[in-house]
Amino acid sequence: MVRESKSPHSSPTFCVRKPNGKWRMVHAFNKLNAATIPASTPIPRKDVLQNNMAGCTIFSALDMVDGYYQLLMRESDIPLTAVSTPSGVLWEWLVMPQGLSKAPATFNRLVTQLFRPMRQFVQAYFDDIFVHSRASEGKTAVEAHLGHLREVLLCMRENRLYANINKCIFGAEEIPFLGCFLGKDGVRADPEKVCAIAQWPVPVLQKDLRKWLGLANYLHKFSANYAEMARPLTNLLKKDAVWSWTSEAQQAFEAFRALRSWRCPMRSAPSAWYAMHLTLPSAVPCCRWMPKAGKG
């Protein structure tokens, strides 16, 4: 992964703790990033990925182990990645390290191009690979899914990409999906995040309320009339607003906590298999989708 270097370049290095308690090595490539031509590769939209999985009944999730480290650096660029360490030794990276400004776009472009021929049953989001299947062409959902998994794993083997078996999920009715849970019945909120919102103490300062609303905003797409419910609270964050925690604000806050502590709303994804009706108000630039009656 690294080798001793005699490069004229050097960047500082440090470590940050991962959620699991382990450490991740990160480098401050500020000067190198400033001289790098920005990448224009778009980030996949989560809602588009969700919609592409609509109608499926069985899912698998693959997590690529140390994703960036699976990409080799171009030989001429290796000296640019040299980093200094407390031991006094200069090291340079043979694989793509954390901290390069183009690393996310480069890695995402790789997985997108590799799995694009399989986009009917594979969705890729950086180091997360989602495989989804339904019964079709005389095959059961399980039979179709096994075939899809085989294609994905063969592609990974041919391109020397490796998954973390401890984080992979195979053949499930529901899988964790980019901060929520996705299954055959739609998308639901992460119960841990719902619990964190429900257990938040009553705000005593404006900054406390801003923090809580920032957290609660995670569930706006799962909730009906979110903006209307939050209005007494958001009014307290307006410019020049006087901080006064009224009974109306307390009632709105308690309504939010009660709703989210007892219920994880489901949000059905649009499906290309069913007809949808679009309603477009002439005065408001918005639209909504409605499944055909009897189809969910």
From TrEMBL:
Which positions fall inside the Reverse transcriptase domain?
A: 1-182
* Gene3D superfamilies the UniProt entry points to: 3.30.70.270, HIV Type 1 Reverse Transcriptase, subunit A, domain 1 (3.10.10.10)
**Where, by residue number, does the polypeptide cross the bilayer?**
none
Question: Known InterPro entries for this protein?
Answer: DNA/RNA_pol_sf, Rev_trsase/Diguanyl_cyclase, RT_dom, Viral_Replic_Matur_Polypro
Q: Which CDD domains match?
A: RT_LTR
Query: PANTHER family per the record?
Result: POL PROTEIN, RIBONUCLEASE H
Q: What is this protein called?
A: Reverse transcriptase domain-containing protein
